[in-house]
Amino acid sequence: MQRIVVLNPKGGSGKTTIAINLASYLASRGHTPVLMDFDPQGSSLRWVRKRQPAQAPIHVIAAFEKDTRTTRAFQLRVPDVATHVIVDTPAALDPHHLPEMTRDADKIIVPVLPSDIDIHACSRCIRDLLLVAKIRRDEDRLGVIANRIRRNTLTYQALIRFLHTLGIPIVATIRDSQNYVRAAELGIGVHEMKSYVAQDDVAQWVPLVEWLARPAGAAPAPPGASSQDAGQAVGDGEPVGSGDGSVAVRAASRTLVNA
Length: 259
Known about the structure:
Elements: E1 2-6, H1 15-28, E2 33-37, H2 43-50, E3 59-61, H3 72-75, E4 84-88, H4 98-102, E5 107-112, H5 116-131, E6 142-149, H6 154-165, E7 170-175, H7 178-186, H8 195-203, H9 206-213, H10 228-234, H11 246-253
Parallel strand pairs: 1-4, 1-5, 2-3, 2-4, 5-6, 6-7
């Protein structure tokens, strides 16, 4: 079972969007993902409840709720059939809670938006993960997603320059797309939308899926390089490769279940 933590103490960075779309992707590929929602807003929980019976099942745990009738361990128990646990963390997470939140995490994803405020917050988040949570760069467990990107803008260029200075791989660049909003309203992910509608968005998940499939401790790609080629190709809505980007995602996913 792979444990994936989506984390950034800065609110509005897109943690829930990444978490629910990753769960949607895994479920639609026949895996059994569990969404663990620590965010008091309960957005991941509401999204799962919107899903229809005909859609691939996703188990959800309302980790933000406190149930005095049971132990915390019992409340957070994961079904034996789970192949992946995706942790949607809350905003304003205290640095002292990072070791507990990231303990046993196989991969940690930090989404960041292209703005001065978000870049500063991301810098502090990475610092705390390295110094407080003791996450090591050479373990290849920590990756950054450049989120809601509009290429050929000054803020995008500033964000990419900043991310290159961190020494942390950019595992995906995800464009600013209304498909994510439409999908969330329907309780689905972009991977469950019609291919001709969302193929450009699906293509941008290829490098992320490839990175998730790499076991912890594998030789990491050069900082910022793991998704840069793919990100540049799709940043303006151009799919990676030819045709439906989901073909490349499916190829990368063959090893993800064993990660």
